[in-house]
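User: My advisor, Dr. K., asked me to get a structural model of this assembly before our group meeting. I'm new to this, so sorry if the format is off. These are the inputs:
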Amino acid sequence: MNTKSVGILLLLGGLGFVAGCHRPQPNEEKIAMKPPQGTPKRPQGSAALTVHPGAAQPFTLQDVVNYFKTHNLPKNGGDLSQIQVSSLEFLTSKEVSQRLQGEPTGVDDNDKIGFVTLTGQFVFTGPSGQSARFNQAYAAFDAATGNLLMIGTLGQKQEPVK
Amino acid sequence: MHKTGDVLRSSMRAIPWRGAIQKKLIYAGLLGGLLFSSTNCFAANYSCGTASANHCYGQTSWSEQPQYFGAYVDLQEPSMNCPSNCGGFIDNEMWLIDANSQACKANSFGQCWVEAGYIAQAGEGTQFFWADSRPQNSSTFNLHIVGNADPVSTTDHFMIVKDGRVSPEVFQIFIYNTSESTLYHGTSVASNGNPMSANAIHIGQELAGTQGGSAGNAEYTRNIWAVQALGPEYVFWYQREKDEGSVRSDNPPFASWTINPSTPPPPEGGEFTTHCCG
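Assistant: The format is fine. Below is the predicted structure of the whole assembly, which you can bring to the meeting.
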């Protein structure tokens, strides 16, 4: 066998090896798992406000103002001292969801929620550290328990966070 | 009558190499004290999140699939604490992320995600939560605190899956334990009918604040991803993660693989571990 033949064989062998390395692996079979089948619990939220039984409203704007003197919004990197309470309305869960462009509250449509709008500095951070700063936010309190059910941003972000 | 101390002192004087023993005992005591205090006594200080500083992460991420229709993890609950002066929070969680779709790149964060886990906020107990950053520019970010977390050492299950049974598609979020005595559910809806198309999954720990946070070892097992949307048969069709992904350990939080996901199951998708903060 001459040198040229050996070279060709080596070249073909090399090509075959490379092709073998890059051959797509057969698709792994997918496996089945059943999602949970039970009836989900009603969200409990986080203990926050005290409900006044028999009063015209379960809690007042001043109750909410007092709460935000000592409690920041969960996951908010903004300064607590800048939070101002703008409004408190008692809405149905369905109305709150409509205000939030379809975001469900997790409670029944007709359940009452104390919907609070806030101004200040609200900074939330994504999964790899990307932040966005807002100057409007909301907090939704369960009217039956005073617990904080959900929070979030309103309006568009402000200047980018460095 | 001799006092006990006198007896001891006279005994030590009788031993010619007592000085060497005393020195060794002192050094051993100092070393032991340092080791003990470094793990238990000093509250950890860190720089993980003011309005101008990013949070810290101990996580791994996968992004090799064209689309992840969902994600799932078994997560054992460790003790977790963020005292009232911690200045932030600490959580263990899973994120399903879309950083590619036009509507997501255009939202306030430059990406969409759905996340689920448990969180210890400043001065509060540990609670289950889920949140979303939606492909829209108003009401973009929403965080749901659903209830108190299960007792320490409980293994909870976290599932996020695109639901193809409805149009436009939504994402279903389930937080539950094996008996389903704990079962919370949420739905992430995009108001513009343009759901995210996830191109990444992250699992791990997020730390915000400056001091005092702590979390025991959390074990993330059954790291699997949905290969298709939920259909009428109501099945989470999945494959397991088979590589380590891209590990980020900001120390704190501390994160590493304790069982490589390439290892044949069990556990499916290996075992990832995080802890914090000292």
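One thing worth pointing out at the meeting: Chain B touches chain A through 74 residues (CB under 8 Å).

User: Perfect, thanks a lot.
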